[in-house]
């Protein structure tokens, strides 16, 4: 891949990653609930979902999924249901009194957080269709395709890891300001509303218009 092409792709990756979406909401939610180091496992899961989406597009399967109304709908509505499930879990999250310095922050299992992030990213069919439209613009058809997709995949994942670290860390810092159960409950319900909003947006996505 030519340097100027890669630089243009790098800029596109930053724009895409910084755009608020379900992944950003999930990262901030994890940082809020578990702190940065524990919550960042969610970002690892997001990247596994992203890597699988890139592999699907590179293998040509993405074009089949984009062309299949049934496959698109199944993935989309799974994503909608899963985001609503995350909203319910966030709404029901139990606050703790952090005014007491001895209070412990809730611990999430790393594998559970990884799976959560993976499902948030992978259950978004719009991302697959979007990558089908964007990635080929940076591909040189006369150069080896595997190497180019590997470079683009590594670039996208690295940028997204940095951005999601920012979202997770920002939420973890906010957590330090939420010293009472009432404040934490309000924040949890705010994130629950954001998850519902993301689910509503995903529900409006139509294959013919993406």
Description of the molecule:
By secondary structure, the chain is an all-alpha fold. The chain has one domain. It is 77% helix and 0% strand. The protein has helices spanning 3-18, 22-34, 36-39, 41-59, 61-67, 69-92, 110-122, 125-134, 145-177, 181-203. α2 (22-34) packs antiparallel against α7, α4 crosses α8 and α6 runs antiparallel to α10. The radius of gyration is 18 Å and the shape is globular. The relative contact order is 0.23. Residues 98-103 have low confidence and may be disordered. The chain crosses the membrane at residues 39-62, 69-88, 149-170, 191-209. Keywords: Cell membrane, Membrane, Transmembrane, Transmembrane helix. It is a multi-pass membrane protein.
Q: What is the structure about, briefly put?
A:
It comes from Metapseudomonas boanensis. The chain has ten helices and no strands. With 210 residues, it is mostly helical.
